[in-house]
Amino acid sequence: MTDTRPFADAAETWNRRYAGDDLLFGSEPNAWLREHVHHLPPRGRVLCVADGEGRNSVFLARQGFRVEAFDIAPNAVGKAQAFAARQGVQVRFELADCDGYAWEAEAFDGIAAIFVQFADPAMRTRLFAQMVRALKPGGVLILQGYTPRQLEYRTGGPPILSHLYTEPMLREAFAALALLELRDYEAEIFEGTGHHGRSALIGLVARRT
């Protein structure tokens, strides 16, 4: 039987979604990232996971960080490179998926993982473990996602329960890190046409000791 889930072919799905001229999730950084960017070591090396069209990596580069980013969709990476050029900042973009990216151990002062919810539970486990491994001692993870209540709002994110985040899930996944903040909340978000309206959110900030 053919797999008809939204992310059965993630590269094709996202490449199609990023095919238009507009920025799907807008040009402004994610609010959770902007609110907690002060936790990142100043001028540190930061990785943006599945960064799409570059709104978060460009924001971090404008704050003086040395930023690297990857995404699975060629259209996204091309648009991110163009966006960074327009903003006059340097970001090292790569075309890769979460399993294919060349993760380095203890390499990053910060990692931003914002709405990386195409990952099924098995991939998510691998991804979260790689993010922990890639942080330097003292490095900070800033993560945001949707909770299962988002299935009621349908204002963004995958309509797949197993892809959504819960507080116990994140506590377990990042038990090796020192938790600075974990918040389950609702808010109105307006991130382009991709995330628009009342949303059920969860945000995490944690440091590797």
Describe it.
- With 209 residues, the chain is α/β, with parallel strands linked by helices.
- It has one domain (10-97, 106-207): Vaccinia Virus protein VP39 (Rossmann fold).
- Helices cover 29% and strands 30% of the residues.
- The protein has a 7-stranded mixed beta sheet.
- Strand 6 (178-191) and strand 7 (195-207) form a beta hairpin.
- Helix 3 packs parallel to helix 4 (74-87).
- The termini are far apart.
Overview features:
7 strands; 209 residues; alpha/beta; 29% helix; Rossmann fold
The major sheet is characterized as: 7 strands, mixed
Shape descriptor: globular
CATH class division: Alpha Beta
- Please identify the structural class as seen in this structure: alpha/beta
How many β strands by DSSP?
A: 7
Order of helices and strands: HHEHEHEEHEHHEE
How confident overall, as mean pLDDT? 92
CATH 4th-level superfamily: Vaccinia Virus protein VP39
Distance between the termini: 46 Å
Oligomer: single chain
Helix coverage percent of residues? 25-40%
What Rg, in angstroms, do the CA atoms define?
16 Å
